[in-house]
Design goal:
The complex is a heterodimer of chains A (293) and B (393). Helices cover 43% and strands 17% of the residues of chain A. Chain A is of the alpha/beta class. In chain A, helix 7 links the parallel strand 7 and strand 8. Chain A is globular and about 80 Å long. Chain B has 393 residues and is an alpha/beta fold. In chain B, helix 4 packs parallel to helix 5, helix 11 packs across helix 14 and helix 12 packs across helix 13. Chain B contains 14 helices and 15 strands. The chains are: A alpha/beta (293), B alpha/beta (393).
Amino acid sequence: MVEIKTADELNKKFLREGMWPTIFCNGCGHGVVLEYTFWALEELGLDMDKVIFASGIGCSSRLPGYINADGLHTTHGRAIAFATGIKAANPDFHVIIFTGDGDCAGIGGNHFIHAARRNIDMTVIMINNFIYGMTGGQLAPTAPLGSIATTAPYGNIEHPFDISNLACALGANYVARWGVSHPYQPIKSIKEGLEKRGFSLLEFLAPCPTAYGRRNKLGDIKKHWAWYDDNTILIEDYEKIMKYGTEEEKAQVKDKIQLGVFQDIQKPGFFESYEKLVDRLREKETKAKEGKK
Amino acid sequence: MKYKYDPKRIREVLGKKVQFLLGDMACVYGGLLAGCSFFGGYPITPASEVAEGMARRLPRVGGTYIQMEDEIGSMAAVIGAAWGGAKSMTATSGPGFSLMMENYGFAAMTETPCVIVNVQRTGPSTGQPTLGAQGDMMQVRWGTHGDFEALALAPSTVQECMDFTIEAFNLSEKYRNPACVMTDGEVGHLRERIIIPDEKDLKIIDRVTATIDKEKYIPFTNSQTRKSKVPDFATFGTGYRTYVTGLTHNEKGFPATDKQPDHERLVKRITTKITDDADKLVMVEQLNLDDADVAFVTYGATARPAESAMEMGRKNGIKVGLLRLKIVWPFPDKLVTNLAKDVDKIIVPEMNLGQMVHPVREFAENHCEVISAPKIGGEMHLPMELYKYLEGK
């Protein structure tokens, strides 16, 4: 049922006029994620008056501004908490959060944890570029060991945060991680996330040549893409090697970032449970009234 | 499940017309009567009863209660709910209020109606959690960074906890600005008789929603349908596709962060929409001021011992009156200037080391002496302590 065939047609439908040019640098991955999101929305045929976007602070959080839809550009790290209120006021909405690794895994970690635990119906799209890009390249909680940032000038000594792994542990209904160089799987995953009741996380590894690449000898975008190829592995391959591989093979993949769908389950979402609670109270009250008669 | 305001049902859930009620619970009643359908809460003494009361009653009127992970999240969810189309509120005390400050400013900047009940306790920091104070009266006015206007009411009785929560919603809806009920641990944990209004006696003001053609709608400018600096409100999902940001924005809502006139136009509008109406917003109680030589200027819990001290003074032939501020912010500046011209001395009793005494002194404009009568540590002033100020001791 897809009527739109080209990216031009897609952009015309989904982009907000008057917000150009974008803030994004050459080689940035954010626009790609936005495009994948548009394709997913188009393929699902959702009513864009009922799709609401929220974001925090950072480059990724500027994305809702470019979308022709309602959008709430909030405070640093808090988008998920704001979105909880949006959804509570109107459970019919599809709420999508664009956030970055600093915004979501850093300052906003606690909101992320609890929204996932409550299984709030929302789709969180976290664009992970290993860096605080907008502020000029400070150390992010997702930065690989040894990477250089303006606030880690001698190399990062902190262990990076695997946010997808965390979301799985919290029981999120849908968790997937992809790079931006695979167009098909991300669009499919965004669609699956949007269709899911409960909490879904889509993590995207996206290059930031300006703030991360430049300082880590990956300023040339081709090198940056090659780094992803060398340092990521599909979950299925990873598991196969860990099960059947030689010690040498295991050592080779041990520290690679896994890509794929990590979790796809059907725990009741928060608002589904809340509605049941309201119904239960109503029934109880009706019975009590009848009892009095 | 979508909330629908049903005052008959709300009255049914609240129960009897006359009740012996806790101050915190009266805030719950006020919120529900005003049509609050979302409460984002986080436990904190002495405000937890507000969250508890909401958790028990909101599902029964079709609203939603969520206990958030912290007060930052509570305030965020409350603002999100407002943009989702709900009337929303939260309640907290000093430490939580401090955490809310960033998003409180976001609400002012994005012109989001919402209500915060602050059941004040002593500070700084953790202070005395169970004991009342009035230490956040300046924080509510200046606590978030940048220029904004505060709407803040200070109840002195349990009845006012309910009435002022309704009023806070009304002001918040009218001006599209956060409004605060600045109660305290004394009034919040006080039990008194209250009378709950019948449905027909409720005076509820709702936001003016956007009705203009979608192509013509401008989200952050003077109203397009009436004479007002408050924009018509197109909440999410209504098809207007509004972009809302805490960044300085132009009239369309798009970021405009590098030009001085854009910022000045925006911030002057969101502040003058309130200050233009400051005289209309004055809500005070005036007692024995006609012939007074000396006056208490007071608010909240402290008004109670001040009134007793005034009565003691009158019995002993001292011409003393009392001005009680029901709305504290915006500050009733002209009223205080006129009072200062009429009396020789103003005494400002507060459960802090002197906060509201500053605007009183500013607007007394040296027409009379202004004395701070502070008391801290979670004990209210005794009437006798305040009476001594009348005798000049």
